[in-house]
Amino acid sequence: MNAVPMDVARSRPGGLAIALALGSLYLIWGSTYLGILIGLQGFPPFLLAGLRMGAAGALMYGVLRWRGVAAPTRAQWKNLVPLGLWMVLLSNGLVTWAELQVSSGLAAVAVASMPLWAALFGMMRGSHPSGREWIGLAIGFAGILWLNLGGELRASPLGMIALVVAAAAWAWGSVWSRGRDLPSPFMSAAGQMLCGSAMMLVTGLAAGERIHAIPSAAAFGALAYLTVFGSIVGFTAYIWLLDHVRPALATSYAYVNPPIAVLLGAALAGERFGMHEIGAMAVILAGVAIVIRPAAKG
Fold first, then answer.
1. Rounded to whole angstroms, what are the CA distances from 58 to 2, 132, 192?
2. Residue from 52, 166, 159, 179 nearest 103 by CA
3. Measured between alpha carbons, how far is residue 102 from residues 45, 96, 234 in Å?
4. CA end-to-end span of the chain
5. In whole angstroms, what separates CA 154 from the centre of its chain?
6. Which residues have CB under 8 Å from 6's CB, separation 6+?
7. Residue 128: which residues within 8 A CB-CB, separation 6 or more?
């Protein structure tokens, strides 16, 4: 998960550019779960997430200011702080921590429930789901229940809770951000990452996290990959898609990332995925597809 604002004006580009942006987003965000798993071999979870988001946020902020983009106002920083809490600390931070308990592929499957939570929170804010969306919500949450009743998550209740909170926090931050006084989209993301990374570093240090030995080259490589590709390149592709295509297509990563994460985890990290998890993933993604699809008509 990477902090992003949700409302951007849209125009229509060429099909090849859209395909390239979607492909990069699917592959990059689908691979970040494995990147986190590798990074955890040398860094504790909240320090890993804090360093990643802090470096990405600082780089983006510096480049944007160099290019003349206005800095957030004091009022905008007041909105960026809670977004940093929900969309960085409680989403990316908890996903990173949860991967100490569960496999990278399973983490991606659980986080795929994010659009379901977003639809539910949108309803609480006055956006009432259609009959089709209610069906999608019911199917998706049935998949979440199935996933949590057996297999790896059942053996790790704390990991389960962390992943559910992470998906819900990301969704709530996305819904809450609509209509708020925020800076330009890329500056907003940089500000969220800076605020959230500070919270994660404080959380990690308060929890006793320390780096007692020099991390391996693989762990440093994972940190660099997560910073440059996961947080900067992936985010840029997502913001560009929000600016040029309908939200349903831009958020389709939610049900493409889990299969990619599962395949990468199995191929490169030796993770095992049973029929229980595969069945639950299919049900969750079916619900997500039903919830997201009606947005394409609007």
1. 15, 42, 11
2. 159
3. 13, 10, 24
4. 26
5. 23
6. 174, 175, 177, 178, 242, 247
7. none
Cα–Cα dist 229/213, whole Å = 26
**Averaged pLDDT score across all residues of the chain:** 85
The closest of 45, 41, 63 to 53, measured between CA atoms, is 45
pLDDT of residue 192: 92
What are the structure tokens assigned to 166, written together? 């992470």
Read off the tokens for 45. 């979870």
Q: How high is the pLDDT of residue 75?
A: 96
Q: Which tokens is 87 given?
A: 């969309």
Report how far residue 52's alpha carbon sits from residue 190's, in angstroms, rounded to the nearest whole number: 12
Is the Cβ–Cβ distance between 176 and 192 less than 8 Å?
no
> How wide is the angle at C-alpha 247 spanned by C-alphas 292 and 286, nearest 5°?
20
Compute the residue count for the chain.
Answer: 298
Euclidean distance between CA atoms 174 and 4, whole angstroms: 8
Q: Identify residue 83 by its one-letter amino acid code.
A: L
pLDDT in tens, 194-250: 999 999 999 999 999 999 999 999 999 999 999 999 999 888 888 787 767 766 677
